[in-house]
Design goal:
Blueprint (H helix, E strand, L loop, with lengths): L1 E3 L4 E8 L2 E8 L2 H10 L2 H7 L8 E6 L4 E6 L20 H6 L2 E3 L2 H4 L2
Antiparallel strand pairs: 1-6, 2-3, 3-5, 4-5
């Protein structure tokens, strides 16, 4: 079933220089295990194709059921240096929660 990530996860994001950091924290272990297989670096890069000009790194944090993504070159020089659009990484968490995913139906009501 197609849903937005905001139905199964929370986010936290920020910026550091030209990069942004986006964390997804999942609501339970079963959904987190599914997310580790499904939410790849490439899917996140594709979702942020107009923002992330560099590579995307992904880190798994099993102890808190979270995935952390670093979006390289996503802030046009950094939150305080951008002359074009006042880039801020703190908005990227909310943007990632709008990504549509194909969640197996049996996981939705857990």
């Amino acid at each position: 079933m197609k849903i937005k990530l905001k139905k199964i996860a929370y986010s936290r994001s920020g910026d550091k220089g030209a990069n942004s950091n986006v964390g997804l924290i999942f609501k339970n272990h079963q959904i987190y295990e599914w997310a580790k297989k499904y939410i790849t670096k490439q899917k996140v890069k594709d979702h942020f194709k107009h923002i992330a000009k560099g590579e995307v790194d992904r880190y798994e944090m099993d102890n808190i059921l979270a995935l952390n993504f670093i979006l390289h070159d996503s802030l046009e020089g950094g939150g305080s240096e951008s002359l074009i659009n006042d880039a801020q990484g703190k908005t990227h968490g909310q943007a990632l929660l709008l990504m549509e995913v194909d969640l197996p139906e049996h996981l939705y009501n857990l």
